[in-house]
Amino acid sequence: MDQQTTARHQPRILAIVLAGGAGGRLGALTDHRAKPVMPVGGSFRLIDIPLSNLHHSGISDVWVMEQYQPKTINDHLRNGRPWDLDRTRGGLLVLPPFSGGAGEGFAEGNADGLLRQADSIRDFAPDLVLVLSSDHLYRLDYRDVVATHLDRGADLTLVTVDFDGDASAHGVVDVDDDGRVTDFAYKPEDPRTSIVTTEIFLYTAETLLDALEQLGDTRDDLGDYGHHLVPHLVEQGSVVEHRLHGYWRDLGTPANYLRAHLDLVDGEGLDLSDPTWPILTEPPELVPAFIGDAAVVTSSLIAPGARVHGTVRRSVVGAGATVEPGAVVEGSVLLNRVRITSGAVVRNAIVDSGAVVDGERVGDGPDAPAIVGRDGLIDD
């Protein structure tokens, strides 16, 4: 088969990145920003993860579905240039809520958001629709998911992981020996398995649109993917899994957000410096980080523009943050432009961008991390 014939048979893939949720589980950290632009690893944003995976997977038709705090997302996306999405044809398209026509108004969940964009999806006429969340940390070549989907002739392929945490916070699946999904439960109190969805979904476009139309005719709204859409397809269609064996973490709660960052500094998380699969982002216009003569820094990530004169252990210090002489930061994440003054001690905490910890002790809690918002300590 010649190359032209092969190219004609490649499926047309539309990627939709879900970036509209309010991120309420992160509390004060998302009061003034959308969750997809929460910093990761000091230098990146959460939405950089799916956009970078899309770039490296060669998928260039990308829609970003927005709703909550859209300006904070648009300020980061710009025109899509960091991910090579600033194109004349295809590339990045931002989908805000709209009025005037079918689907107008604000979505009540991610599946409901897809229903509201069904006409636009139909007009685009893709073969496959890849739907991605924007609050997870992982590396994946989506072409492998496409291969699984096509090989199995599936209506829906769920990317799954054998999860080592609380499965009840996710969609939980049963699979048979052939990888067929035989049962699905959305955030069950008593999970039957440890296999959970990673909120990476590959749909056959015709099946997705038919399901949205059928469900939309019988329900006022579809809520999230696990309420009606995925259960409907598990019952009525062919749903298979594609197992992700690498690192995956949902960063949608303070505890998971802190844990993922400690995984990074412990060398157990995603390798942010992998030259074969770099995370792409809007480059910062910042000077290099500065480490003072009296500073003590161990097992930590220090972002550009940061200045460290005190002690930082097993932590992430964000862009433009300052740790003054005599200050101690341990097991914590400082977001951009944070200032920790002399005499302050920060342990097991997340300090929001622009916040000041002025000579006080925060954190030390054994379980949930303390959150220091811009106006002071929020939760300890």
TrEMBL record:
Residues 293-364 form the Glucose-1-phosphate adenylyltransferase/Bifunctional protein GlmU-like C-terminal hexapeptide domain. The keyword Nucleotidyltransferase applies. Signal peptide: none annotated. One of its GO terms (biological process) is glycogen biosynthetic process. Keywords: Glycogen biosynthesis, Nucleotidyltransferase, Transferase. Residues 15-264 form the Nucleotidyl transferase domain. Pfam families: Hexapep_GlmU, NTP_transferase. GO terms for molecular function: glucose-1-phosphate adenylyltransferase activity. The keyword Transferase applies. PANTHER family: GLUCOSE-1-PHOSPHATE ADENYLYLTRANSFERASE, GLUCOSE-1-PHOSPHATE ADENYLYLTRANSFERASE-RELATED. Belongs to the bacterial/plant glucose-1-phosphate adenylyltransferase family. This is Glucose-1-phosphate adenylyltransferase. The lineage of its organism: Bacteria, Bacillati, Actinomycetota, Actinomycetes, Micrococcales.
